[in-house]
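Justification of resources, computational component.

The compute hours requested in this renewal are based largely on the per-chain cost of generating structure records like the one below. Each record pairs the submitted sequence with a full structure-token output. That output is archived, and it is also reused by downstream analysis tasks.
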Amino acid sequence: MSLVGVVVFPGSNCEHDVVRALGALGGRAELVWHAETDLSGVDAIVLPGGFAHGDYLRPGALARFSPVMGAVAAFAEAGGPVLGICNGFQVLTEAGLLPGALQKNRGLTFLCQPATLVVASTHSALTRAAHVGDELVVPINHFSGSYVCDDATYLSLVEHDQIVLRYRDNPNGSRGDIAGIANEAGNVVGLMPHPERALDTLLGSADGRVLLEGFLAAADDAAARADLVAAP
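The structure output for this chain reads:
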């Protein structure tokens, strides 16, 4: 069974939610402290939500320099699945693993509410099990969640099918209604909504399941590739 490493920065607060959610879907996950520099034992990585390093300077700006991020960058470069949720998305942009940036919400308002997402692409480790056009209700919980980028970057995102999730009703002013993007290869994904909080209709929605199930499938594929390489 594949293993997902969930990175914990000082100030992370959603790491246990992610571990619990992946376990509920049959996956295996364990916490990885941000000072770790060896990720050789994991098949996928999640950077969870929270306030890494207190969000001093700007969200993700200090976490980008944590020792683990060098290993995360190498893991991503090798094709490993990497997912950044909320603060984790901010860290990925600050680290240059995803383009663009996250700024304060339109109206300078903290948002904690359900959001309807439209699947815009299945060319990613997160959306591979969904279908283009699917509408998923997944909660948001952020103050700096408005995605911004310059015109050239936006056109490149569109051209290379990197916009994976859009808001149906844009809550925060994100350019192009963007809720989540991937790198060109599709193995690195960031999104502001929290799929780990949408696994049970009794709690409002189970629409996060299809996203995390896709990510677990990507982890399994990575584990299978590693086994082939290691085989005599």
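The helical segments are 15-24, 68-77, 87-94, 151-159, 209-230. The chain has one domain: 4-230.
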